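G., the chain you wanted modeled:
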Amino acid sequence: MKKAVSGIMLTELPRPPEMPPEAPKPTPKKRRTGLYIGIALIVVVVIGAIGAIAYFASLDGFIPTPTKPIHHIDYFLALKKDDSLQVQFALKSEELDFISTDGNLQLIIFDETTNSSLYETEFTIKKSDFKYYETLLDKRILAYQWSIPLSDVQKCISYGTAKITFTATNGKSCSDTDEYVTLPKYTEEETEQMFENEYAASAKTVDKDLTTEDFQITVLKMGMFSKYTYLDLERMFRVDLKVKNVGSGTKSFSVYDTCVVTTAGLQYERSYYGTFESGDVSAGVTKQGYLLFDDVPETASIAKLTIDEIYIFDFEKDETYTLMEMYENMFLQSAITVQQTITKGDFSITLVKVGHFIHLEYGTWGDEVTEFRVDLKVTSIASEPEYIFESDILILDNVGNQYNYEYGGTLDLGEIYPGVTREGYVLFPALNENANRITVIVTDTEYPEDIVYEFTVNL
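Predicted structure as tokens:
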């Protein structure tokens, strides 16, 4: 605990609502009450004329201190004056009389923004330490005052809040608070560095990569982070990110639709206060910064990070993948393996797999849709280039429905040279829920007669 410095003259405090300074106490040779009152009045007039507040040292025996229990604290202030913080308070009874008594005093000053302690002191004071003062409105008050060097008080971000607690010897205790106490402040740069240091000490190192055709995405570390915004301290979840363009040419990388999901299944969206911005990234160039997420609980454990709804970091399973890879894995787990080959005419065609397929409507963006997918492998066995088209593929089901080819698959047919194989999938509308058998029909339009490849699959 730090010791309070007592005996500071109250003239160092500004006028109301602050208290008056202590004037030198006269040393009377004889008890001449009338004379002392006259002297005191002269002191008030003279000092008041020059803008000070006088201490009535000679009135201690004239105005007796009521012997009543303390009820509350009044006139509590902590004011910055030059290089010190001057503190004052008074005690009052339930009948609002000023009183003084022996007791223990505790003062705590904390940062209004971070709620962290900036200064603490505790010491005992005696009844005789309370002195009479006069306010600007000529009101006499019985109070105690002392001064604290500002060098003993830590810096704050905005303002301080002072809380005083006085406990009398009979155990009776009362408290009061003074808000918006002016204290030395951190500069903006000091505040930012302090928050960075706190994050660096508490953040979890991740160093997890996700590499695609165009980008290498690295989550460096993550954890709770303090940020001062619009005069408010906010605690956010922070993810440090590094993105390198490993492809050719300039590519656009977005973090617009980005979220984290906790192990409790709660999702939190990206805030706009982060330093990583969406935009173009030139070939070979690396962008780095951090993302922030609002309202994430301090105790939350992050299970998954999804960047732009595409790039997924699954921390629980220690996996990284794209949304398209996730859809592909889901299809492979539920698809029906066929592996049936028909060879005739100019082509050898293999029906590999079939099944319903969830994906984004336009490949890497758009709404999530469900379609029926057919995986094929087509090899030319002709002696010269021949043509076959994915649009000449259709499906018939056993409840009388026909499904025609839809755009969006990966199978690219057309002109195929001898010995060349094309693999991929074609998409169709989702099947009728009552269908339990389908026929996949591939037609090679030839003159004078088409060649038809039919594959029947039980669902």
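DSSP finds three helices and 31 strands in the chain.

Shout if anything looks off.
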